[in-house]
Automatic annotation (TrEMBL):
Its EC number is 1.2.1.3. It is an enzyme of class 1 (oxidoreductase). This is aldehyde dehydrogenase (NAD(+)). GO terms for molecular function: aldehyde dehydrogenase (NAD+) activity. The lineage of its organism: Bacteria, Pseudomonadati, Pseudomonadota, Betaproteobacteria, Burkholderiales. CDD domains: ALDH_F7_AASADH. Belongs to the aldehyde dehydrogenase family. InterPro entries: Ald_DH/histidinol_DH, Ald_DH_C, Ald_DH_CS_GLU, Ald_DH_N, Aldehyde_DH_dom, ALDH7A1-like. Homotetramer.
Length: 503
């Protein structure tokens, strides 16, 4: 297994000279060491990329969808063959523990498989026409160039959710990854290029999926470009609000997957052993840096004492350290700003009546330039302002409830609406939580946590989460345009609604 970042990147097909001399420094959150200095994309090149992607779309849309699926199948094969290396790179660049780095690549493979099947199932409906000798149907056509903006915390999988679907749907992609994870993006692009070579069209990779690297100005140039038909953006609500408004102003389409403030409800009938394990992974896994991370625990008063005691014990046992070490459960936060935001939230939580366990910086002597923390449990007297805010760190606010109606009201009474779950063995409670009057989130689960969704379902949420749906189910429709077709196979010309216009 390669050790240095240069070797690792070479094993993924990225040449060493790409990693040097650029203006965009990438640092490993494991120890704060510089990994590479890559070149950010000049702003005029971003416009170029959008125009080239549009040109590629004009050609790619004519390729039959199952053949487009073949390119994605080959991409899936490259990902299978390089799963170890790409997972290792995610660990190095964003600090995911090894199994989560590998899991993220698996998520890419899964969506490729899904998209290959989908390439033969881009189905429209047929409707009954009110007119004799007429038929109505809808067809789904490729949309155009798709801008994909991704966050540091899922540096490869979120691109794959978008790109695999966009490509089988006949679109071209311009990808703006997080400025904190350009190496993962370069590696994925190299694997995509290999797939294009095996597809027999090496030139495709230059246009069909293009990378633009850099800070927010690069993303802004992409968002504003009139040739970008759809912008799919994952990240903070602040970013999504700016993207959504800019794209709407030019009547483009956006697909937003923004902040979450996900709650787990634990009812009196819950299997508490299971709940403890699920809460631990959902709240502290990935060092609290998933959009689906559980940030609130809403516990029935009857089991509150027992559950919180068990959680404190579990939290005390977490192994915190370098994500490369076997057995580590909590890797580092992405950077100092994330650490400071976490500390600030804990100060506010105390001011608002919270009792905090954990949340301190650890391993500072060993890693002075990295930010490891113990996961925090914060018992809150009420759902105060700080609890309503998403802090991207392992902080779990704990609240207590008496009736299921109260628990559902607490679950819904935040600005975000991504994921939610209930632990209960009471069928009535479970179904009420999933019902129209239950959780208002895009994802609602029973007896599993809020994070770690499979690719087969539509992924996304309501309210400030942005309303977009990516990944499985019928999320592909966002990447296509729908045309309604009415065909007259009679020799008369009746008008709809009985209108007469006789000449
Ligand atoms: C994200 O954090 O942006 O459900 C995506 C999950 C993962 C995806 C998270 N499958 O936690």
């Amino acid at each position: 297994m390669p050790t240095s970042v240069t070797e690792l990147m070479a094993s993924l097909g990225v040449a060493p000279q790409v990693l040097q001399g650029g203006d965009l420094a990438t640092v490993s959150p494991i120890d704060g060491q510089l990994l590479a200095q890559v070149h950010s994309t000049p702003l005029n090149q971003v416009a170029h990329a959008a125009v080239r992607a549009h040109g590629a779309f004009l050609r790619w849309r004519l390729v039959p969808a199952p053949q487009r699926g073949e390119l994605v199948r080959l991409l899936g094969e490259e990902l299978r063959a390089h799963k170890q290396q790409l997972g290792q790179l995610a660990t190095l660049e964003v600090g995911k523990v090894s199994s989560e780095g590998l899991g993220e690549v698996q998520e890419m493979i899964d969506i490729c498989d899904f998209a290959v099947g989908l390439s033969r199932q881009l189905c429209g409906s047929t409707m009954a026409s009110e007119r004799p000798g007429h038929r109505m149907m809808e067809t789904w056509h490729p949309l155009g160039a798709v801008g994909v903006i991704t966050a540091f915390n899922f540096p490869v999988a979120v691109w794959a959710w978008n790109a695999a679907l966009a490509l089988v749907c006949g679109n071209a992609v311009v990808w703006k990854p997080s400025e904190k994870a350009p190496l993962c993006a370069l590696a994925v692009q190299a694997l995509f290029e290999r797939a294009c070579v095996r597809f027999g069209q090496p030139a495709l990779s230059r246009d069909l999926n293009q990378l633009v690297l850099g800070h927010a100005d690069v993303g802004q140039a992409l968002v504003d470009h009139p040739k970008v038909a759809l912008v799919s953006a994952t990240g903070s609500t602040r970013m999504g609000r700016a993207v959504g408004q800019a794209v709407a102003a030019r009547f483009g389409r956006s697909l937003l997957e923004l902040g979450g403030n996900n709650a787990i409800v634990v009812a009196p009938s819950a299997d508490l052993d299971m709940a403890v394990r699920a809460v631990a992974f959902a709240a502290a896994g990935t060092a609290g840096q998933r959009c689906t991370t559980a940030r609130r625990l809403i516990v029935h008063a009857d089991v509150y004492g027992d559950l919180v005691a068990r959680l404190k014990k579990a939290y005390a046992s977490f192994r915190i350290g370098a994500p490369t070490e076997p057995g580590t459960l909590l890797g580092p936060l992405i950077d100092q700003a994330a650490f400071e935001a976490m500390q600030q939230a804990l100060v506010l939580a105390r001011q608002q009546g919270g009792v905090v366990t954990g949340g301190e910086r650890v391993l500072q002597a060993q890693y002075p330039q990295a930010f490891y923390v113990s996961a925090a449990l914060v018992e809150m007297p009420a759902q105060t302002e700080v609890v309503c805010h998403e802090t991207f760190a392992p902080i779990l606010y704990i609240l207590s409830y008496q009736t299921l109606a109260q628990a559902i009201a607490l679950n819904n009474d935040v600005p975000q609406g991504l994921s939610s779950s209930i632990f209960t063995n009471d069928l009535r409670e479970a179904e009420s939580f999933l019902s129209a009057a239950g959780s208002d989130c895009g994802i609602s689960n029973v007896n599993i946590g809020t994070s770690g969704a499979e690719i087969g379902g539509a992924f996304g949420g309501e309210k400030e989460t942005g309303g977009g749906r990516e990944s499985g189910s019928d999320a592909w429709r966002a990447y296509m345009r729908r045309a309604t077709n009415t065909i007259n196979y009679s020799s008369a010309l009746p008008l709809a609604q009985g209108v007469r216009f006789d000449i």
